[in-house]
Design goal:
Elements: H1 2-25, H2 29-54, H3 61-91
Helix pairs in contact: 2-3
Pfam family, one: PNTB_4TM
Membrane topology: Multi-pass membrane protein
Subcellular location: Cell inner membrane
Length: about 100
């Protein structure tokens, strides 16, 4: 029973990886900044979910994994905003 669900989960993961790779390769540079902002919003939602999981008062494996998820999601959100800001700086006119 467990191996069937594991094989199904791995199949979905591999299929999503290939689909994501193909979608990312087809994105032109002008659309990258709005898509990055959308990805930051999704990462913010993941951060809220991780905070809820990590907020339990009893120490368990789910709380530890929630804490790790909080750290990873925070790094993802901050890094995404820094990349987005850097890309937006490229479109500003330089004052001489």
């Amino acid at each position: 029973m467990m191996t069937e669900s594991l094989i199904g989960a791995l199949f979905v993961f591999v299929l999503a990886s290939f689909a994501g790779f193909e979608v990312i390769n087809k994105v032109p540079p002008t659309l990258h900044t709005p898509l990055m902002s959308g990805a930051n919003a999704i990462s913010g939602i993941a951060l809220i979910g991780a905070l809820i999981v990590a907020g339990d008062r009893t120490l368990s494996i789910s709380v530890i994994l929630g804490l790790i998820a909080v750290v990873c999601a925070t790094i993802n959100v901050v890094g995404g905003f820094l990349v987005t800001d850097r890309m937006l700086q490229m479109f500003k006119k330089k004052e001489a």
